[in-house]
Design brief:
Layout (H helix, E strand, L loop, with lengths): L1 E4 L4 E2 L6 E2 L4 E6 L2 E4 L25 H23 L1
Antiparallel strand pairs: 1-4, 2-3, 4-5
């Protein structure tokens, strides 16, 4: 945790207060910003219950499979060229 001066507006993760740019706030990560006046929060431990497997903004699984197949093919070609 560190105290920062916000470069852009944010919302307190605890009380939902609007924090305008220029406000000093406690910063843990981009989605965990707290009013400077709140008691210091310990960083929560990440567990399987708190860490979803896929985020809402994650690409669909078919796109990932296609991407990984292309990476595998490129690596196989590279290994073949290195063995020559």
């Amino acid at each position: 945790m560190k105290i920062i001066t916000l470069q852009r507006a944010a919302v307190c993760a605890d009380c939902g207060a609007e924090l305008p740019a220029g406000t000093r706030a406690r910063y843990y990560s981009a989605d965990r910003i707290y009013c400077e006046s709140h008691d210091e929060k310990p960083a929560p431990r990440k567990t399987k219950e708190t860490e979803p497997l896929f985020q809402d903004d994650s690409p669909d699984i078919e796109a990932w499979i296609q991407f990984l197949e292309e990476v595998r093919e490129a690596l196989t070609n590279l290994i073949g060229r290195l063995k020559r």
